[in-house]
TrEMBL record:
Native organism taxonomy: Bacteria, Bacillati, Bacillota, Bacilli, Lactobacillales
Statement: the UniProt record of this protein carries the keyword Kinase: no
Gene Ontology process terms (BP): phosphate ion transport
Species for this entry: Aerococcus suis
Keyword Lipid biosynthesis annotated: no
SUPFAM superfamilies in UniProt: Periplasmic binding protein-like II
Protein's recorded name: Phosphate ABC transporter substrate-binding protein, PhoT family (TC 3.A.1.7.1)
Keywords annotated in UniProt: Lipoprotein, Palmitate, Phosphate transport, Signal, Transport
Signal peptide range: 1-20
Length: 282
């Protein structure tokens, strides 16, 4: 009887050790791929830059878990030691770990210096000529106050020498803004400050993806669209786009994962399903 109990103890300890080994992206640990939804500007930019998308074909592995926003990706990766995903660099927090790509850290300075390979523009999109409060808010975005907000939000401003905002606070009306979940936080911060200066203006922001934002601008259901990617050829003929800031795309893993860096080719192979186990990266 004593021998039987000892055997069970050994088996139990062995199983526990095996589970622990799988918790750090080690040998025998399948990679849990987390991606964004179709229409996400972050996904479009990520797949284009990494080569996951080729000839207008997105080759993201079929087994990837799809999440509809940055926060959801962070939650998925933080909850699973085997997970890997990608998010806006400006949204990076301590609950996940950003790995180096091609030996370059994902930092705002490396994005500004064009050293980090995964970077993309944050754009606003609109039709025709802007008027009234929308035009004034547009001017605020590109003012010193607006660009300082982009910097405070951990993005790279497009104009570090911008002139101060010249508005006199007498604007009124409603501005509807729709689009990228990555661009939304910085636009929300800008809108909050702008409405303090112009209390008779109401700005409504809906974060539902870059493609939805571009389409809303095309349809005229939003004064401004938000896109975290370049416009496609067919979109460029219908609306204008302007870059308001620059952002990196961080490749993130669980904090318990020992992986510190990946090559761009390894990132591509993981997200296309060519590499499926963390042991293949050792």
């Amino acid at each position: 009887m004593k021998f039987s109990k000892l055997s069970k103890l050994v088996v139990t300890l062995g199983a526990t050790a095996a589970l622990a080994a799988c918790g750090n992206g080690g040998s025998g640990d399948l990679i849990f791929v987390v991606s964004r939804e179709e229409g996400s500007g972050t996904r479009d930019a990520f797949t284009e830059i990494t080569g996951v998308a080729e000839d207008d074909q997105d080759n993201t592995v079929d087994t990837a878990t799809i999440q509809n926003g940055t926060d959801q990706v962070i939650t998925s990766v933080s909850d699973d030691p085997s997970a890997i995903g990608y998010i806006s660099l400006g949204s990076l927090n301590d609950s996940v770990k950003a790995v180096k790509v091609d030996d370059v850290e994902a930092t705002e300075q490396n994005v500004a210096d064009d050293k980090y390979p995964l970077s993309r523009p944050f754009n606003i999109v609109y039709q025709g000529e802007l008027e009234g409060a929308t035009k004034d808010f547009h001017d605020f975005i590109y003012s010193k106050e607006g660009q300082d907000i982009a910097l405070d939000q951990d993005y790279v401003p497009v104009d570090s020498n911008a002139e101060p905002y010249k508005g006199d606070g007498d604007q009124s009306g409603k501005i509807n803004i729709v689009g990228s979940t990555s661009v939304a936080p910085v636009l929300e911060a800008m809108a909050e400050k702008y409405m303090e200066l112009n209390p008779d203006v109401n700005i409504s922001i809906t974060a539902n993806g870059s493609s939805a934002g571009v389409q809303a601008a095309i349809d005229g259901t939003a004064q401004l669209g938000m896109a975290s990617r370049e416009l496609k050829d067919d979109e460029q003929s219908k609306v204008k786009s302007e870059e308001i800031a620059k952002d990196g795309i961080a490749v993130v893993v669980n904090n318990d994962n020992d992986t510190e860096g990946l090559s761009m080719d390894q990132v591509k192979q993981i997200f296309t399903g060519e590499i499926t186990d963390w042991s293949e990266l050792n």
